[in-house]
Amino acid sequence: MQGLVWSLCALLCLSLWEESYCRSSRETQRTKEPFLLRSRRAPIDPNSKQCSYTFLVPEQRITGPICASTTGPEPDKDRVTRMDIADVREVLNKQRREIETLQLVVDVDGNLVNEMKLLRKESRNMNSRVTQLYMQLLHEIIRKRDNSLELAQLENRVLNVTSEMMRLASRYKDLESRFATMAGVVNNQSILITALEEQCLRSLGRGELAPAPPLVQAVPQNIPVDNRFTNEIQRNSRAFTRGSRKNSPTVSPFGIEPPPPQGTLTSDGPFKDCFQVRQAGHTTSGMYLLKTDNSDRLIQAWCEHGLDNGGWTVLQRRRDGSVNFFRNWENYKASFGNIDGEHWLGLENIYNLSKQGDYKLMIELEDWAGKKVYAEYSSFHLEAENQGYRLRLGTYQGNAGDSFTSHNGKQFTTLDRDKDAFTGNCAHFHKGGWWYNACGQTNLNGVWYSGGVYRSKFQDGIFWADGGGFYSLKSVRLMIRPID
Ligand SMILES: *[C@@H]1O[C@H](CO)[C@@H](O)[C@H](O)[C@H]1NC(C)=O
Ligand SMILES: *[C@@H]1O[C@H](CO)[C@@H](O)[C@H](O)[C@H]1NC(C)=O
Ligand SMILES: *[C@@H]1O[C@H](CO)[C@@H](O)[C@H](O)[C@H]1NC(C)=O
Ligand SMILES: [Ca+2]
């Protein structure tokens, strides 16, 4: 820019100078030839002076001046030129001043233009900046509005949740009071049940109060102590549902035949017992069809092949309380329950099985800590029905303790057939069917209580004296196999 301005100035100066020079040269043209035009004009200028020479004769003395050069300007012309120069200088000065003024103006103008340009640029920048800021502001405003909306929603939700919480708290209090009422009712019912039980026993004893059988005194070794309440509840609920369960496979404990056990038969038998099944090559525990000697009836039985080389015929099994064992003579004579779950194989079947040869009995017991023990009797068989299916046991061996030998030689007693040595009916006290004595050291067909230690007026749980009379076992199995 600056350069351009300067070059412009220079051009201007040059032109001005040339103009003024030309003017002055025109004025002086007649007297002085401008050296620029001499070459052009010299040959044709008629006013141009020629140099004149004076030739001297050598014999003669020099009397006149020697002309060395006659080109010097004439005095007239000299004067004119000086005046001209003064004129020109003045004009030049004047013009220089003008130029300086112009220069100043130009400079100012250029600065102004620059400033203008800068300002314009700045303004443009400002505009875009302002636009940007405006957009940002808009954005912020929109965002703020959204936030406030969200905040309001959140507040609403918090309020709602708080009110919900209060509602739930009040409902919880309501439920708590209702629970307290129910607990009171349950306690009252429990008392009532006990009273009714006593009354029932009294009426069974025809007005006389039958004395309770002696309790098994053995103290269990590992009693869980914190589940008494659980047992109480369990017991009460059982008292209500006993004999009226609809979903149970065993519809009624009295007289009604249970539906045939279901399951898949894996037998290609029939076999005489599970030992024969095992000998035929079957190694999978499961349900098999058995046919005892001199009988044309088939028996469904569970063969246990996973224990001690297998071949065990299961006579009874308890494990989850799914089947009611407080049943009459007909039930115990036949069979009940589910072959693949809790069941009783039936006294007649057991009798027919056990008379086929020499069998030993294995009783497997598991407590609620998962500990398994067993009691084995070297021989086992029952006598016929007219002998009340009297129990005949061999000698004990095992780690469960011998709680069964005291039942040896006893007939089978149910709630409707009392063959025990006790004045009352042991089946009523122990709530099962068994070879009761008076009443005995073990009750494996008793009530299945959850948790082990149970609270009951009588010892009616599934107990094995060595585990304690008030400790109900978790699972039990009675199995027979021919003596090796
Ligand atoms: C809060 O509860 C009111 C009714 O009690 C309901 O209309 C509103 O939609 C609820 N708000 C939320 C955020 O759940
Ligand atoms: C329980 O029985 C007692 C009296 O034996 C009685 O005062 C109380 O109200 C009964 N409670 C319930 C919840 O029935
Ligand atoms: C038991 O065996 C006898 C023959 O000894 C037979 O008549 C009877 O039907 C058998 N009972 C069962 C339930 O198989
Ligand atoms: Ca009796």
UniProtKB/TrEMBL annotation:
UniProt cross-references to SMART domains, sorted A to Z: FBG
GO molecular function, one term: extracellular matrix structural constituent
Fibrinogen C-terminal domain location: 265-484
Entries under CDD domains matching the protein: FReD
Coiled coil: none
GO CC annotation terms, alphabetical: fibrinogen complex
InterPro entries hit by this protein: FIB_ANG-like (IPR037579), Fibrinogen-like_C (IPR036056), Fibrinogen_a/b/g_C_1 (IPR014716), Fibrinogen_a/b/g_C_dom (IPR002181)
Region Disordered, residue ranges: 238-270
Keywords: Disulfide bond, Glycoprotein, Secreted, Signal
N-terminal signal peptide: 1-22
Compartments, as annotated in UniProt: Secreted
Biological processes annotated in GO: blood coagulation, common pathway; fibrinolysis; platelet aggregation; positive regulation of heterotypic cell-cell adhesion
Pfam family, one: Fibrinogen_C
PANTHER family: FIBRINOGEN ALPHA CHAIN, FIBRINOGEN C-TERMINAL DOMAIN-CONTAINING PROTEIN
Protein name in the entry: Fibrinogen C-terminal domain-containing protein
Originating organism: Oryzias javanicus
